[in-house]
Design brief:
Distance between the termini: 26 Å
Order of helices and strands: HEHHEEHHEHHHEEHHH
Structural class: alpha+beta
Strand order of the largest sheet: 1-3-2
CATH topology of one domain: Arc Repressor Mutant, subunit A
CATH class of one domain: Mainly Alpha
């Protein structure tokens, strides 16, 4: 395995070899893009890891989202069905009201096909001065104003593998060059990759993922492996 990642191709190859690849440090030494990337491609003036994400997603071999302890990373297409099978069996919503609000956001994205967080705010009426039937429905589920923040909702839906990031969109300057942080466009794994079913129970998918982690990191504390698997 190439330790120093110097291109989008290197990152994708590393993900395909390992099955998953966290973007940031995750507690297992060396098991992240942050630790493997050549320094000149991490927070520098050079195009690097941040810009490569979209190209890797569009290549179609690796899914991207906040999958690991609410932090971003990649899962290979080969392993994605088992992650979906396991994670979707475990709701992360703290109560039924929050789960209902998550479902409103999820259904909106399913109907639209894809959406950015700004588009969701407009469609759901969360933007200042906005109001919609969907927001009125959502308000019956919320317990306080905090729950109207879409960021934790989108993070939960990604952790549950119900959503992935389909691409990143950038602002364009007057010279036609992109700039700034990319805006994530969300969709479902099925919309992006097709059917994701497996002939296994969620527990069997979990056991398969854990066995793979044990093989990758035989000397690692199992609590740390479980922390990443979720």
């Amino acid at each position: 395995m190439k330790h120093r990642l110097e291109s989008a191709t290197d990152v994708a190859a590393c993900c395909l070899e390992l099955g998953i690849l966290p973007f940031f440090r995750c507690g297992i030494p060396g098991f992240s893009i942050e630790e493997r990337i050549a320094p000149e491609y991490w927070f520098s003036d050079e195009e690097g890891a941040w810009e490569w994400k979209g190209a890797i997603i569009r290549d179609g071999q690796c899914a991207y989202g906040k999958f690991f302890n609410r932090k971003a990373g990649f899962v290979s297409r080969a392993w994605l069905p088992d992650w979906i099978n396991y994670r979707r069996a475990r709701s992360l919503a703290p109560n039924d009201d929050v789960a209902a609000l998550d479902d409103v956001v999820m259904q909106t994205i399913q109907v639209e096909g894809t959406a950015t967080i700004q588009e969701l705010r407009r469609m759901l009426g969360f933007a200042q001065g906005g109001r919609s039937r969907r927001r009125e429905a959502a308000e019956t589920s919320r317990t306080d104003e905090e729950q109207l923040s879409l960021d934790p909702i989108l993070t939960r839906l990604q952790m549950e593998m119900r959503l992935v990031i389909a691409d990143f969109e950038y602002k364009i300057d007057r010279h036609g060059k992109s700039y700034g942080w990319g805006i994530a466009r969300y969709t479902t794994p099925e919309a992006l990759y097709g059917p994701m079913g497996v002939q296994r129970t969620p527990d069997e998918s979990f056991a398969r993922i854990l066995a793979h982690f044990r093989q990758l990191f035989p000397n690692e504390n199992e609590k740390q492996l479980l922390r990443i698997i979720g």
